[in-house]
Amino acid sequence: MPSDDLTPGPRPGTAAPGALLLCRAPADSVAPVAHLLPEPMLLISAGEEWSVLVPEGRPWADDGEPVDRVATGWATALGVGAPWSVLALWWDRDRAGYALASGFRRPVGYVWLADGTPAGEDEAMRTFAARLGLDPVLDAQSLDRLAEPDPAADARARLLGLLAVLSRVGVDLPAGLAPGTATAALHAALRDRSGVRRIDRSTLRETARTELEAIEDSRLGPYLPWSGRPEARILALAQIAAGLPLAVWALRRRSPGWLTAGALLLAHGTLGLAYDLTRPRD
Hints:
Blueprint lengths: L17 E6 L3 H8 L6 E5 L5 E5 L2 H4 L5 H14 L5 E6 L3 E7 L6 E6 L8 H11 L5 H9 L8 H12 L16 H8 L6 E3 L1 H16 L13 H24 L2 H23 L4
Antiparallel strand pairs: 1-3, 1-4, 2-3, 2-7, 4-5, 5-6
Helix pairs in contact: 3-10, 4-5, 5-6, 9-10
C-alpha cells in the first residue's frame, strides 16, 4: 500500500513545487541510468519492483522552471534510456499531475487544478492503465473516478488516489513521501533511512566502474566501445542514426525530454565511433 503518512505537508494549493519519479525497476537497475540526469537525487525502493527518485528541485526552486515540464523531461529521458516505465508525479501552487514515459512512445499525462478540478483528457487515463498493465475493469473504474468532478477532493487527494490504484501493481512509497510535501521535507524523510542512495556526479565514477565490470563479463561486453568488436561499431552507428532525427524533431516540437534523449543517443554513438576510429590497431 502507499505511504500512510498522508496528512503532513502542505497541499498543492499552497505548496512549493515538488516532484517524485517512480521507476518500475529495482534500485540497483535505476541507479546507473539516473546518473545521466543533471540533478542530484535520492533513490530508495518503493515496493518489490519499484523505486523512487527524489530530486533536489533546483530547476524550479532556483531557476524558476515549470515543475511539470522539468519532471516530464526527466521521466522521458529515463524512459528512453531504460527498458522500464517511469512515472513522474508533480505539483505546484496551481496544479498537480503525472506523466508516464516508457520507451520511445509519447509520454501520457493528466493534470488537475489545485482544487481538484480535472483538466486532462479521459483517453490519457485509459492509455495510462494499459501501459502499466492495470486491471481494465476495476482499476480503470478507479482511474475514471479521478477524472470526474469531486468538490471534496483537491489535487493532492487526486494524486493520493492515483497512488492507491498503483499500490495494486506493487507501488509502496516510504513514509513521508507524499504528494504536496515540500522538497526539503521529502529529503528529510529519507535522511536517516537505510537503503537510501545519493545520485550525483560525485558517486558516478564508483557506480560506473562497478557496472562496467559486470557488463564486460556479460553478453553486452562486445558492444562496449573499447571492445574493438564489430558489434560496438554497429551500435555506435545505430545510436547516431536514431539520435540525430530524434534531436531535430525535439527541437522543432520544443520537447526538452525528447531532446535530452536524442542528445544522449548522439553523444554515446559519437563517442563510441570516435573511440573505434582512433583506437590503435593490432
